[in-house]
Amino acid sequence: MTRHTYDGRQLNTTFSLSQTEGIAPLPGNAEAALLNVAAHVAAVQALPAEVRIVFVTDEYMAGLNTNYRAKEGTTDVLSFDLGSTPGQPSSGEIYISLPQAERQALALTVPVFEEVARLLTHGLLHLAGWIHDTRDQLLAMESETERFLNDTELNIPL
After folding, report:
1. According to CATH, what is the number of the domain 2-151?
2. Highest mean pLDDT: which of 2-11, 29-38, 70-79?
């Protein structure tokens, strides 16, 4: 894990990126840009001390979705606040189905990187305590997500 800075400020959250088998490594410039998006969110939202971001296949995501949400099939993003244990920093994990993100980007006619950044931001907001159990909560969360994306340069394709 690497400690990151944003606008010259040291952040209280460290981020790591990885992918499961079957997912190609992200290009170096995409990884750096996604870490910039995460740092941007961490600069204004209270996040766990350590956040692991994992890119997965649809099959892997479907397993998580079944095991933890009792829902069949894949989904785009899942966040898990793992809390903390005595003597350990708080942590969280965000899983993003890259194939699902690609399909959504195509349907929305946006670059894949933009959709991945949107899903990452959405997952980070969940770790910060945001929920969307109601339509108003969902609209507020989507608005906050877009605010972050509009404040961050997203011109790097994935």
Report:
1. 3.40.390.30
2. 70-79
Q: Decide if 83 contacts 97 (C-beta within 8 A).
A: no
User: At a CB cut-off of 8 Å and minimum separation 6, what does 19 contact?
Assistant: 25, 26, 54, 55, 56, 98
pLDDT digits (tens, 9 = 90+) for 127-136: 999 999 999 9
Where exactly are the structural domains of the chain?
2-151
From the list 105, 149, 144, 147, the residue with the least C-alpha distance to 126 is: 144
CA distance linking residue 81 with residue 128, whole number of Å? 9
Q: Cα 49 to the chain's mean position, in Å? A: 15
In terms of C-beta distances under 8 Å and separation of at least 24 residues, what long-range contacts does 97-101 make, across chains too? Answer: 97/55, 97/56, 97/57, 97/58, 97/60, 97/61, 98/19, 98/23, 98/55, 98/56, 98/57, 99/57, 99/58, 99/74, 100/58, 100/61, 100/74, 100/75, 100/76, 101/76
